[in-house]
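Section: protein folds

Sequence with per-residue C-alpha cells
===
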Amino acid sequence: MICESLKTCFDDPGKFLGEWFVLLPALVLLLAAAAAVVLRNLIHATLCLTLSFIALGILFIALGAEFVGFVQLLVYVGAVAMLIVFAILLTRPERLAKSDTALSGLGPAGGALAGFVTLGVLLGFLFTSPIAKKSLPGPASAPVAEIGHALMGDYKAALIVVGVLLTAALVGAAVLAMEDKNS
C-alpha cells in the first residue's frame, strides 16, 4: 500500500507522491463531510461541505477522471455550494423555527438509528440486485471534446433546465429574504 519501506519511497518518489495525492484528499473529504454533518452553525457546515466538494474533485482528478473532477469543481463548488451559501445568508433566522413534530424529540441517537437503518436497506438492495452480479464495464474512451459536443447538442435542453432550476432557487431565496412592506 503506502511504500513498504522507506527505501522504496525514496527510490520512486513519483509513486510515493501519487499515493499521497489520493490519500490526502480522501482524508480531507471524510473529515470535511463529517464536520459538515456535526457542526451546528450553518455557515461553518456549508463551508465544510464546500471543502468536501473540493476534495472530491481533486480525488477524481487524482484517480484519472479529469472531466468528472473539473465538472465537480465547477458545478458543485462554483454553483451549488455558492447557491447554498446565498440561500443561508438571504434567509432570515427568525423564519427558521424549531420543529415540534413527533420525530423532533429523538435527538442524535434517533438520527443515527435512522441513518443506519437506511444504510442497511441500501446495502441489502445493492448486494441482492442482479446488477451487482454483472461485471463492470471498462474505462470510457470518449474524449472530453466528444462529451462537450454531446452536452451542447443532444443534452442542450437538460443544461438549460438545470440553469433555470438554479436561477429559480436563487430568486426564491431572494424572495424569502425580502422585507415585508406591509408590516
Notes: The radius of gyration is 22 Å. The chain has a mean pLDDT of 76. DSSP finds seven helices and no strands in the chain. Helices lie at 6-11, 13-38, 42-62, 66-90, 107-128, 144-152, 156-177.
